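User: Run a structure prediction on this.
Assistant: Running it now.
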Amino acid sequence: MSPEGLVLIGQLGLRALEESGWGVQSVGGLTLGADPVAYAIAYASGLSPRSLRAFTVRKEPKPHGTAQLIEGPFASGDRVAIVEDVITTGASALRAASAVSSNGGIVAGVLAVVDRSEGGRETLQEHGFPVIALTTAADIVARLS
């Protein structure tokens, strides 16, 4: 959540989405890990010709107020990229994808900052979601050596 990290992840995430051809209108995922990633990408997109909206998927609907599971400018019919900070098992992304689909969204794929290579990518792909990771845990460890 550092300024430098948000700038870097926003720019790299936006570029990856543009290159994916997914044609998404919004990005988001399960709070809390996905929130800074989605917001960074949305901010970076605001400086580009085509902006993307960011949203948050709550773990449970709020018992008061709007009582919505998805907060932010998500709209039914949106093509969405589910975003993650880290993919481990894929469970968080699947939960977010289910919420988006249940609310009329179309999940185009999953974008993660880091893939830990512990089976999450494969699980998501088995559910029909293409996956893009900006890096892997092994790449990070290799650079630290």
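Residues 10 and 41 are 4 Å apart (CA to CA).
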